[in-house]
Specification:
357 residues; 25% helix; six-stranded antiparallel sheet; alpha+beta; Trefoil (Acidic Fibroblast Growth Factor, subunit A); four-stranded mixed sheet; 7 helices; 2 domains
């Protein structure tokens, strides 16, 4: 089995950038002048984490920025919901199975009250995870078992649980479903966010700018949060989300990027018009994202201000139109399978024939 796991790890190094739905990244904290033990540990931890991230980013839609430590005071390995993973000195735990198990804790398994409240009498009661284990096992009576810290099957609690890469993939699918059950998150949109002048919101390091719509820096993801209408959302650029610095509620504040913390100055509401354009209204301030020259600011709402309206241009695989319309304020709109209004000029781009069997 160790040989199989090692082959997975080396495979990661060559193809990790070619796949991916998730936006998980990590930073391994290193000593300025590492000794021989630290150098060896860093290499093994990096290989394990690279492999874990490859599988999580390929088979989940999760996003987080993780910080990893080598800590000789840790007996095995440990993690918390804040995104910190620590590996102890035992090399037997510096492997992909352990890294993935700890990433489950990073995404709420055994580290959040939501998880504890959803584990009832030793059974995880979330509907998405329950449906996923039934799908994986082919058993309509299957459930996920667990306690306040771990779950099984596919929790990767012991090395003996893994016989192939497929078991690691199934772990990812289960954790992805558990996270969605715990926090009611769903990918709403993936693509570019276009301004009225044709440029797109683009990530420049830890800030935002209007720029070229081509390339990965312009690729954004909108995540729907919760189950209450009107929905709130967050806007992701890689491992960071849009953020109003210092939670300011006044106009003329430049929008930045920061790690997700769940607060209202990182959440927004979407408003749409009859042309299928949207405005991004920050929850904490009630102000709208507006483009000014090449930067973004939160500004007082003005429906007549073209720079407050944005066009969501999804990647071709994300939107499939169906023969239905949404009646909004007396006018019919073309919508996709999730009920999102689509600009008429973009209809042909996403229209596809769906075979019926």
């Amino acid at each position: 089995m160790k040989k199989s796991l090692i082959s997975v790890a080396f495979f990661v190094l060559s193809v990790a950038t070619a796949w991916g739905q998730g936006n998980i990244t990590y930073t391994l904290q290193k000593a300025a002048n590492p000794n021989a033990d630290q150098v060896d540990a860093y290499a093994k931890i990096q290989l394990a984490m690279d492999s874990a991230l490859f599988l999580y980013n390929k088979h989940t839609t999760l996003s987080k920025k993780i910080t990893v430590y080598y800590d000789t005071g840790v007996s095995t390995a440990q993690a918390n919901f804040d995104g910190v993973i620590s590996f102890g000195p035992s090399r037997s735990y510096m492997m992909v199975i352990t890294a993935m198990h700890e990433m489950g804790h990073v995404f709420g398994v055994g580290t959040t009250s939501q998880y504890v409240n959803t584990m009832v009498n030793g059974v995880f009661t979330g509907p998405q995870a329950t449906a996923k284990i039934k799908e994986i096992s082919g058993d309509p009576t299957a459930v996920i078992h667990g306690d306040n810290t771990h779950f099984w099957p596919y929790g990767l609690n012991y090395v003996s649980e893994v016989s192939s890469e497929q078991d690691l993939i199934r772990h990812c699918l289960i954790v992805d479903a558990i996270y969605k059950d715990l926090f009611r998150e769903e990918v709403y949109f993936a693509g570019t966010i276009n301004a009225s002048d044709g440029r797109c919101i683009t990530r420049i390091d830890n800030s935002l700018s209007l720029g070229d719509c081509e390339g990965p820096k312009a690729q954004a993801k909108i995540i729907q949060l919760g189950e209450k209408v009107p929905y709130t959302y967050r806007l992701e650029f890689g491992d960071l989300v849009i953020d109003i610095p210092n939670e300011k509620t006044t106009p003329n504040v430049e929008v930045g990027l920061y790690s997700w913390n769940g607060k209202n100055h990182q959440r927004f509401i979407l408003e749409s018009n009859q042309d299928g354009l949207v405005r991004i209204k920050m929850v904490h301030s009630g102000l709208f994202l507006e483009a000014s020259t090449d930067r973004l600011y939160q500004m007082t709402g003005n429906e007549m201000q073209a720079s407050q309206w944005w066009q969501l241009k999804a990647m071709g695989s994300q939107q499939i139109l169906i023969n239905t319309t949404l009646n909004l304020k007396g006018k019919s709109r073309l919508v996709d399978l999730k009920g999102r209004v689509v600009h008429p000029q973009e209809a042909s781009t996403y229209q596809k024939t769906i075979p019926v069997k």
